[in-house]
Specification:
Blueprint (H helix, E strand, L loop, with lengths): L15 E2 L10 E3 L4 H14 L2 E5 L5 H15 L3 H4 L9 E7 L4 E11 L6 H8 L3 H29 L9 H5 L6 E7 L15 E6 L5 E6 L5 E4 L5 E3 L7 E5 L1 H6 L9 E4 L6 E8 L6 E2 L18 E2 H9 L18
Parallel strand pairs: 2-3
Antiparallel strand pairs: 1-10, 3-11, 4-5, 5-6, 6-13, 7-12, 8-11, 8-13, 9-10, 9-12, 14-15
Length: 336
């Protein structure tokens, strides 16, 4: 069992730029506080950073540790065994290749649907009787994190004064929700993997997440960096007890650009391996994505985006490079 240490209370945390040391105060959302005191901070975090840290989230530490243990066990298997869960289609095991357009990174990953029953047969040949344990742990973890994500989205709706409190969360709760779950393993970036300048290689290239919201947890290893408005990449200190939440492209559109989908990447750590687990909360494939009417002052003429379905956008994402501005194809062009 992986043992997680108890964190010290924090009101903010320090970050280090990729090129120089500086102090940046990222938003910290405490879910044990009354929603009334948190929703304003939450909206401000989504507007300024598109990213925030969550503490007192209600997800059991034991469950977090158990999933990390299962992930370490899987990625420690011989490549020949892990390959039985691949190649990704897009679900399954992948190694170094990311997507279909030539992106690569120093990463192994396991991409799963949130209905792991459909993935079960792939793992039965790898884990044998232990496959059922793996499936149950993933299911329990996803259920707990989805509940937290929905709570956050309902606080967002309150903060934006959207009349229907479940306007956003209902898309994750829908039986047809196209949410996915990903386990990543980044091996240490040993000297032979560093470039000629001694810099660590990219584990996962810069990108934004296309879904509504992403909820990430990692072990106590650094590597995650986010891109700030001032053009700096900032390293996010790891915290194995807490979660980090990203605004996704779909939420940026639904708030008509008020919230920003955060650009982020992972740099391989030079000393130890990094394990991360991410729940990507997505809408049903047929869901129409457009700015919410209550957030438009003068109706559709204020909309910055053309309406599209999640299926349309997902298809576009799969045919693009990681670093592409994927929303560019759906932005309205201002009349000259």
């Amino acid at each position: 069992m992986v043992v997680l240490s108890k964190p010290s209370p924090m009101e903010q945390f320090t970050a280090t730029t990729a090129t120089a040391t500086s102090t940046t105060l990222f938003p910290l959302i405490d879910l044990s506080e009354p929603p009334e005191s948190s929703k304003t901070k939450l909206v401000a975090a989504c507007e300024e950073f598109g990213f925030f840290k969550v503490i007192n989230h209600g997800v059991p530490i034991e469950l977090m540790a158990e999933l990390e243990y299962e992930a370490v066990k899987f990625f420690s298997l011989p490549l020949s065994a892990k390959a039985k869960a691949g190649p990704p289609d897009p679900f399954g095991y992948g190694n170094n290749k990311i997507g279909r357009k030539g992106d690569v990174g120093l990463v192994e990953y396991l991409l799963l649907t949130t209905d792991t029953e459909s993935d079960y047969q792939k793992f039965a040949s790898i884990f044998g009787e232990a496959a059922e344990k793996f499936r149950c742990v993933v299911n329990d973890y996803v259920a707990a994190v989805k509940k937290m994500a929905c709570e956050i989205l309902e606080m967002v709706a309150d903060g934006l004064k959207i009349q229907a409190r479940d306007a956003l969360s209902k898309m994750l709760m829908d039986e047809e929700s196209d949410s996915v779950f990903r386990l990543n393993y980044y091996p240490p970036c040993l000297p032979e993997f560093q470039d000629s300048g001694g810099r660590n290689l990219i584990g996962f290239g810069e990108h934004t997440d296309p879904q509504i919201i992403s909820v990430l947890r990692s072990n106590d290893t650094s590597g995650l960096e986010i891109y700030l408005k001032d053009g700096n990449w900032i390293s996010v200190p790891p915290d194995q007890y807490s979660f980090f939440v990203n605004v996704g492209d779909s939420l940026q559109v639904m708030t008509n650009g008020r919230f920003k989908s955060v650009r982020h990447r992972v740099v391989a750590n030079s000393r130890k391996a990094r394990i991360s687990m991410i729940y990507f909360g997505g809408p049903p494939l047929c869901e129409k994505i457009a700015p919410l009417p209550s957030l438009l002052i003068q109706g559709d003429q204020d909309s910055l985006y053309n309406e599209f379905t999640w299926f349309d956008y997902k298809t576009s994402v799969y045919t693009s490079r990681l670093s592409d501005n994927r929303l560019g194809l759906f932005e309205k062009i201002a009349a000259s």
